[in-house]
Amino acid sequence: MSEPLVYDEILIIGGGLIGSSIARAVRERGAARRVVMHDRDKSVCDRLRALDICDHVDEVCGAPNADLVILAVPPGGIAQTAKQILPQMKPGAMLSDVGSVKANVVEAIVPLLSGGIDFIGGHPIAGTEQSGPDAGFASLFTDRWCILTPSARTKEASPGAQKLKRFWQALGSRVEFMDAAHHDLVLATTSHLPHLIAYALVGTATDMETVTKGEVVKYSAAGFRDFTRIAASDPVMWRDVFLQNKDAVIDVLGRYIEDLTALKKAVRWGDGDTLLKEFTKTRAIRDKIIDAGQDVAEPNFGRNPPEEGESN
Amino acid sequence: MSEPLVYDEILIIGGGLIGSSIARAVRERGAARRVVMHDRDKSVCDRLRALDICDHVDEVCGAPNADLVILAVPPGGIAQTAKQILPQMKPGAMLSDVGSVKANVVEAIVPLLSGGIDFIGGHPIAGTEQSGPDAGFASLFTDRWCILTPSARTKEASPGAQKLKRFWQALGSRVEFMDAAHHDLVLATTSHLPHLIAYALVGTATDMETVTKGEVVKYSAAGFRDFTRIAASDPVMWRDVFLQNKDAVIDVLGRYIEDLTALKKAVRWGDGDTLLKEFTKTRAIRDKIIDAGQDVAEPNFGRNPPEEGESN
To answer: What is the pTM of this model?
Structure first.
């Protein structure tokens, strides 16, 4: 294990689920000597103070002493927030973010850099369906991947990039460097499409004129409830994600609608062989996800624990 | 609370997740004096004996003494199994099933009834993504709904129907009577469509030529992993469900593809207002599901528990 202390002082802008979890994890693991937080919402600042998860909450945002500034604001606000904070950062400091879309952020911020300040995009693949400072917790990043997207200006091998990597490792993450455009395609597949699918399903189910909302709620344990968790995620953040990762989302969504239409045709024609073939391919990937430590093996995500003392 | 003992002897045909869970629940709660099980697969019979969850495992299926026979076989085999067991059932006994599609089963079995034997379709809205006798557990039905679908022949108010209701209540379920065709539309919405969506997503994600399977696995915690649980469900059972509930599935799937296409258009046109409106509707239904006791309130289904001793 390397030394946990990576930065002297860090500033986290945005006190939501991710920002407040970073603060908690930094304190628990000693990854920085001093953590300052800022949120443009005064009530969030008050809450951050009450939670006592950082050393100082700054209502007027400045970054004179921060060695690392992390933008933990919704994707739509990242470029604008970067523009405001960059002139106040000290020479040699690092700017990063935690947004779910990377290419447009790298493109918008890199031209603004000067004075030896670097920017590397970051995306911890972790979260819950909840939002706000109270939703965060220190172990959110443990064993989850964090993707860093260096630019042509700031390469993976640079000391700044390696230091940012050590920081995320100190919070418990595994770190991977990736091209920003490729990141956006991978996440469109593993994150953005699943969320859009879930949002759409909740819409379809609650708009049925022949099935009541009460019935949808009562009989949700048959599958539907799983989708409502993802569809309960922060609407503003997800609006921004889809607006900012348009091309990749339209690509994977188009493919998905094709695949769904093929399954619809198989149902219509009573083509049981095709259905069985498609349904059989899928268990293997779940096993791989569990083996990779990215999900729990317990049935129903452990929501249905057998009673104590039961042998089977 | 009523007397837990409801039937003297029951026969469960099929020793998978549901059948073996019924046996365990009956024993734990004393809902029948004697439980006999049968499975056409000899290795399942051996396993049922080893698990010791019923009084007798019958390799040659007969039902001379059973007051209730439950068909816990995949949907495609229910009508055929009913045909075989009905002539062996004693006068006045009740036949039921646990399949996810009801109209076709009621239609196929009711004309076969004679000798005071009744049939009422049953569907416990409970399960996990696992299969087989080892996957079952006694609390599977606790606080879950069980839908019973009486026919014109055997009405809800009949003593047989009320007795079957008491049986499921004794296993911990809440019971609702419903018209079989309406059941199939409700479940197409809350169960069959979600499963088809999940199976299709796993197919789309693993068929991307620009994103590797390794990347899909590594970054699955961003949403994709949730879908792989549902898509790991028994492929044979689900093939049967879609073949047997064709009309309702095509109806809701068609609506869903329309809704998804509308969201795709909103993404293409950068229509953030529409996206935000759709994404904002969905948190309310999750809250209702949690209030109704049909899901846990913990973030990430409780997969990310905060460490012990952590205050936030």
So the answer is: 0.90
